[in-house]
């Protein structure tokens, strides 16, 4: 009789803990709470939040949102749409390509932030919470519900990680975004067109905000909405569409820029737009020097001043020291650009053999020398060229092909004022600058700039003439700044030495331009334009920041270096440098051992 022994089965592997949320709620209830909270937040915008119209925006009306209530309404709609997409509602699946919960969390936080900011502002400005109507309390509670539901949704990383990592998981983009299905070319063009129209509407709303509280709320909603779109994978998919339709995207961008003044009823906002384009053009020129060639220039605003003073001297102003000279705009623009180019070569030729901090100190000195020099060229402390501190006033408006830019004109029943005319001129100049920038960046000289930026010693060893390449970058960037300066002189009617300094409370100054490039994203086209728009709009809309602009810029740069060192609009190369990407093509680093190597002869 044979006995058989049974081997006991090995213990089963422990089951990993199921994903759970930070707040102990069933996933079904949490998702329903997000949806219900989004709907309630949207509906609460139709209630009266305060009893008096002393708070800006008139939030006293039942049945119609006003002021900041529209922003709460928008955030509530976004939260509702993301919640419905998470349920798999047909036609909304494109909103969540990654099928993650981070967009729900961020859109809910956007609604919560703008609603509670409004409630707190009402209480502070009107003297207490007694000024809140029941609608204000309902809105505050309703905006809290989707936040609670979003943090109760399960996250894959919260099973074993700590609380800090769990919180990161709620606002982080997944490592892999599923590729989009192939779509017809006309659908891609339609998507780009719709996004351009939405972008124009969002920008127009922001620039038209009439008081600081509304602009702060606008920033809250835009930041959280863009963050949600990023974590959902929508921005990645749109970037792929842009890459496949670059020409159309560029054309739509300029079409939106041209359409902007036709959406305005107040020429003041066109003035803001033309100044943003002027400073954005100068920042784009600085981006060649800093972003592509890697040269830290702290006196770049001086080239803007050279172009402005050159245009003022040949503009026909009665206060110009060159009497009887009145060049047409195309000639004065070329003269200003050429003068800045010459100054760029004269300053760059003896100094560009320096590197790093030493070059930065020399350029800072050049910027200060320019400001002091034009301040002293008044006929007493120096030659009579710039009228010293008084500058050159009464610069006449431009006249192009019989079209006086200083006079309002009716186009299609819409009146374009003086600043709108100059805005359209700057759009044309911006198109030329973008064309020059992109062609130069993609050329052989542009590749040489990037090589110099990454490692000048290695680039020189490979045969690149580092001095010549850097001098070309310096001269080209200076000429673009001078070109923008020629328009700036006519827009402001006068040129004085005060703005052309390293740092100041109002733009332009070198610190402002450098911050615009770093904040927006070095090495990109859209980055400096976005940086210039933000840095110009924030002090313009938030009056309390005008005297503390340098402090605000410093805090913004510190936060940027900590959380997004590559800038808001990241260059792909720099993004790979600053973040772990999990690429498989990076060779594994191995350490040599003490074992003798086996050679072919001894094998």
TrEMBL record:
Region (Disordered): 1-21
UniProt KW Iron-sulfur keyword: no
Cross-referenced Pfam families: BPD_transp_2
Organism of derivation: Streptomyces djakartensis
Compositionally skewed regions (Low complexity) per UniProt: 1-10
Membrane-protein topology: Multi-pass membrane protein
Top-rank taxon: Bacteria
InterPro entries (alphabetical): ABC_transp_permease, LivM-like
This protein's UniProt keywords: Cell membrane, Membrane, Transmembrane, Transmembrane helix
Localization terms from the record: Cell membrane
Regions crossing the membrane: 29-49, 69-89, 101-124, 136-154, 186-203, 215-235, 247-263, 269-291, 298-317, 329-349, 356-374, 420-438, 471-491, 511-537, 549-565
Main subcellular localisation: membrane
Protein name: Branched-chain amino acid ABC transporter permease
Residues annotated as signal peptide: none
Lineage, top ranks: Bacteria, Bacillati, Actinomycetota, Actinomycetes, Kitasatosporales
């Amino acid at each position: 009789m044979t006995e058989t022994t049974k081997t006991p089965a090995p213990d089963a592997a422990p089951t990993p803990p199921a994903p759970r949320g930070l707040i102990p709620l069933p996933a079904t209830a949490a998702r329903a709470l997000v949806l219900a909270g989004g709907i309630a937040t949207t509906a609460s915008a139709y209630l009266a939040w305060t009893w008096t119209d002393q708070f800006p925006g008139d939030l006293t009306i039942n049945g119609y949102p006003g002021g900041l209530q529209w922003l709460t309404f928008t955030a509530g709609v976004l939260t509702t749409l993301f919640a419905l997409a998470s349920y798999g509602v047909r036609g909304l699946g494109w909103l969540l390509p990654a099928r993650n919960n981070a967009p729900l969390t961020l859109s809910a936080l956007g609604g919560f932030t703008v609603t509670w900011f409004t409630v707190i502002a009402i209480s502070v400005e009107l003297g207490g919470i007694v000024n809140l109507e029941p609608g204000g309390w309902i809105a505050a509670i309703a905006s809290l519900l989707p936040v609670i539901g979003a943090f109760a949704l399960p996250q894959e990383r919260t099973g074993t990680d700590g609380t800090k990592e769990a919180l990161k998981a709620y606002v982080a983009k997944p490592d892999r975004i599923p590729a989009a299905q192939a779509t017809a070319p006309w659908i891609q063009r339609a998507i780009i067109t719709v996004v351009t129209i939405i972008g124009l509407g969002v920008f127009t709303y922001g620039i038209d905000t009439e008081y600081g509280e509304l602009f702060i709320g606008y920033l809250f909603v835009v930041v959280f909405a863009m963050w949600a779109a990023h974590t959902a994978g929508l921005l990645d998919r749109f970037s792929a569409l842009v890459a496949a339709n670059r020409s159309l995207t560029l054309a739509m961008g300029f079409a939106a820029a041209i359409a902007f003044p036709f959406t305005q009823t107040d020429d003041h906002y066109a003035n803001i737009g033309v100044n943003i384009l002027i400073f954005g053009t100068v920042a784009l020129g600085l981006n060649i020097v800093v972003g592509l060639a890697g040269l830290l220039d702290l006196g770049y605003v001086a080239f803007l001043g050279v172009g402005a003073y050159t245009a003022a001297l040949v503009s026909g102003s009665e206060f110009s020291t060159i009497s009887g000279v009145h060049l047409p705009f195309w000639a004065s623009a070329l003269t200003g650009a050429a003068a800045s180019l010459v100054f760029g070569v004269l300053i760059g030729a003896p100094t560009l053999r320096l590197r790093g901090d030493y070059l930065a100190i020399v350029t800072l000195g050049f910027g200060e020398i320019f400001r002091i020099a034009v301040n002293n060229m008044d006929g007493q402390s120096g030659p009579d060229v710039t009228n010293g501190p008084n500058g050159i006033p009464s610069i006449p408006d431009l006249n192009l092909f019989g079209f006086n830019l200083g006079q309002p004109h009716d186009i299609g029943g819409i009146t374009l004022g003086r600043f709108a005319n100059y805005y359209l001129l700057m759009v044309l100049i911006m198109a030329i600058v973008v064309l020059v920038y992109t062609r130069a960046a993609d050329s052989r000289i542009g590749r040489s700039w990037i090589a110099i930026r990454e490692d000048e010693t290695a680039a020189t060893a490979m045969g690149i003439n580092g001095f010549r390449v850097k001098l070309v970058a310096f001269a080209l960037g200076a000429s673009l700044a001078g070109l923008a300066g020629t328009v700036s002189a006519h827009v402001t009617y006068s040129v004085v030495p005060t703005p052309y300094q390293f740092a100041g409370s109002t733009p332009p100054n070198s610190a402002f331009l450098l911050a615009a490039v770093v904040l927006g994203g070095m090495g990109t086209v859209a980055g400096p334009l976005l940086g210039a728009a933000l840095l110009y709009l924030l002090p313009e809309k938030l009056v309390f920041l005008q005297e503390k602009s340098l402090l605000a810029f410093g805090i913004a740069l510190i936060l940027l270096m900590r959380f997004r060192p590559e800038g808001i609009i990241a260059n792909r190369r720099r993004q790979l440098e600053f973040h772990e990407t999990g690429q498989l093509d990076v060779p594994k680093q191995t350490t040599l051992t003490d074992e003798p190597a086996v050679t072919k002869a001894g094998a």
